[in-house]
Amino acid sequence: MALPTSPLGPRLAVTSPGPLQVTPSGTLPITPSGGGPIGTFLRGVGVPYAGTIGAVASFVVAFAVVYLAGRWVVLPLVERMLDARGLDRHAKSPLTKLTHLGIVFVAVAIAFGFAGLGNFLTSLATIAAAATLAIGFALQDVVKNFVSGVFIFTDHPFRIGDWIEWGDYSGVVEDISLRVTRVRTFDNELLTVPNAQLTDGVIKNPVAYDRLRVRFLFGIGYDDDVAAATELIVEAAEAHAEILDDPEPVVRLTKLGDSSVGLEARIWVADPRHADWIRIRSEFVADVKSRFDAADITIPFPQRELSGALALDGLDGGVRLVAED
User: Does residue 9 sit in helix, strand or coil?
Assistant: First the structure.
């Protein structure tokens, strides 16, 4: 179709392969579309709401296919690759979880496009921009714990199986995730600890190295022979099969108490992660106690002495006790 020209100049020429149709409302007709391949098929057979039904079905099918493929193919490959690099459970656990999260993200993105819902990243950016403030307030603790989990993974302050102490708590690390760390106490209780609590304070890891020094303070009487008591403690340490000879046991006089002389024994235990060093210390202390008893070396207990005098005065036929300094 060609429009005629006017004295003021040529008018816009529009060509059309067919007649231009105008709807009664004055707008161009819009043909229903969307829903992906399934929506197109349903529309072709005249199913009502074909676009909506097709979009949902296409999304579910695409997501399931991609997700299962990732779980059955990608995830095992990643796990074998981590095993080949010799990583332990402490390192493999968060990397495996990140891989699983990436599979879910890719599955959602592909499902969006397959269902004809547009670009997933664009939609995600729009939603995130609209909800940034609310999500920021709601997830600030989650993000803090997530970042702390990354620090635990990179800094290695402890590993799965380590015994750790922090604040008033202690136990063996059972699992480390990107948000929380699970610790089993020695009473067989499970503690779920936010990672931020383990990175904001001081953590004690007694089993971080291949040897651990164990200390115990023995108290003997002031009238006892310090040299003889020291020799008995060293002999008890040398007699125990699980106490190391190198470094050798050491005993030092470290305290002059109100009622006793303090001798601190310092012994070393190998491989504290697997050795029951609490049992070793208990057996060592019991042996020292037996040797002290055989040598008539006393282990005194705190005593208090009261000085003064007591006077008895008659009071209406009764008795009254009066302390005199």
Answer: strand
Interatomic CA distance for residues 268 and 104, integer angstroms: 50
Q: What is the mean pLDDT of residues 56-80?
A: 85
CA dist., res. 174 & res. 191, Å (int)? 10
* Domains of the chain from N-terminus onward: 50-138 (no CATH), 157-200 (2.30.30.60), 211-294 (3.30.70.100)
DSSP string spanning 61-118? HHHHHHHHHIIIIIHHHHHHHHHHTT--HHHHHHHHHHHHHHHHHHHHHHHHHHTT--
User: Which of these ranges, 104-118, 242-256, 265-279, 284-298, has the smallest mean pLDDT?
Assistant: 104-118
Alpha carbon distance 180, 323 (integer Å): 62
The token pair at 22 is 């105008």
Measure the CA–CA gap between 49 and 42, rounded to whole angstroms. Answer: 9
CA distance 175 to 194: 12
Give the number of other CB atoms < 10 A from CB of residue 267: 27
Unique residue bearing structure tokens 């990354």: 150
Bridge partner list, 182: 175, 192
Specify the pLDDT at position 30. 34
Residue 35 to residues 62, 105, 191, 321, Cα–Cα distance (Å)? 12, 21, 48, 101
> Dihedral angle at the C-alpha atoms of 169, 170, 173, 178, nearest 10 degrees?
20
